[in-house]
Amino acid sequence: MNETDPALWPPVRLSGAPSRYPYYGELSRRAAGWLGVDPEMVLPTAGASEGLLAAALAFVCPGRTRALTSTPTFSLIPGYLRMAGAGISGVPVRGDLTHHRKGMEARLALGVDIVVVASPDNPTGMALPAGLLREWARRFPGTLFVFDEAYGELGGQTMVPAASEMDNVLVLRSFSKAWGLAGLRLGLAVGNPGLLQALRRVRTPYAAGAAAVQAGLQRLQSADRLPGVVAAIHHRRRFLARALRGLELEVPDGCRANFLPVRVGPAAGRIATALRRRGILVRHLPHALPGWLRITAGREEETARLAEAMEEVLSKPDEEE
Ligand SMILES: Cc1ncc(COP(=O)(O)O)c(C=O)c1O
């Protein structure tokens, strides 16, 4: 799992009896101040995942809605859209794992009701420029653009300002990645109040619990630490890229998330198993990215251990699965 090292943030301190339903007002106000939007444009969710689910349930008309994604992307994106009854066009990424901009644009021009774009994306780590996404949202006002910014802090750009300006833009943020609160399940949906009202109608009330709200507030109160955390994650990812390239493995340029895809070829499954046997977990995604592994950027000593184990595994092609 591509979580953030807990050592990068101070521990969360929870207080008070959990006998009351959570109160979202203060978190929405603080998050809105941090994002630079009105508090009515912010809805706390149980992670970005709940935002994705609610968006699919709220905006997909079973059998009628035409949805667009890049492929591969975060599995819940096509998963929830399909479950809600959308017909999905997935535009495959290019050989270097970058989004196929022209292909997506051509599909948008043919008519799409909802497009869900993760930027940076998972498992590719690739981002699309905010300027291009904004241009698409302007050019196709009849399409709802859902921007999954679970890695937005790491990507260094956001569509939140576009959500203030355009009624067809919904942005989903997460406290799981750069903010290091994956276990508490907290995210934010950011969009015009009409879009957020549609989400409220379909979601479980108070899915983001009181502990998550308290923790989110504490993180926002120490938001001045975020740039340091982001810099540390980028540093670790660059260190990982150097280590993998040192083994003559292909790592694409341009990844901005807290992990890297690395091309290891048809033995990807065997390599993942062999690494697991050595106590190292990497993600093998045989359907999404055959021939590649997704590796989270850990501390330098963890990466050094991974590189050593990888070298050994690559030198033993006959090791049993
Ligand atoms: C692109 C993307 N979106 C959303 C999520 C889910 O985030 P959360 O933990 O906030 O539900 C993930 C988690 O890996 C992800 O990679």
Gist?
The chain is of the alpha/beta class and 321 residues long. It has helices at residues 25-35, 47-59, 76-83, 101-110, 130-139, 152-155, 160-165, 193-202, 210-221, 226-246, 268-277, 300-314, and strands spanning 42-45, 66-71, 87-92, 114-118, 144-149, 169-174, 187-190, 259-263, 283-284, 292-296.
Structural overview:
The chain is an alpha/beta fold and 321 residues long. The protein has 12 helices and 10 strands. The chain has helices spanning 25-35, 47-59, 76-83, 101-110, 130-139, 152-155, 160-165, 193-202, 210-221, 226-246, 268-277, 300-314, and strands spanning 42-45, 66-71, 87-92, 114-118, 144-149, 169-174, 187-190, 259-263, 283-284, 292-296. Helix 2 (47-59) crosses helix 8 (193-202). The radius of gyration is 20 Å and the shape is globular. The model has no long low-confidence stretch (mean pLDDT 95). Bound molecules: pyridoxal-5'-phosphate (PLP). Pyridoxal-5'-phosphate binds at residues 2, 47-49, 74, 118, 122, 148, 150, 174, 176, 182, 187. Pyridoxal-5'-phosphate is lined by residues 2, 47-49, 74, 118, 122, 148, 150, 174, 176, 182, 187.
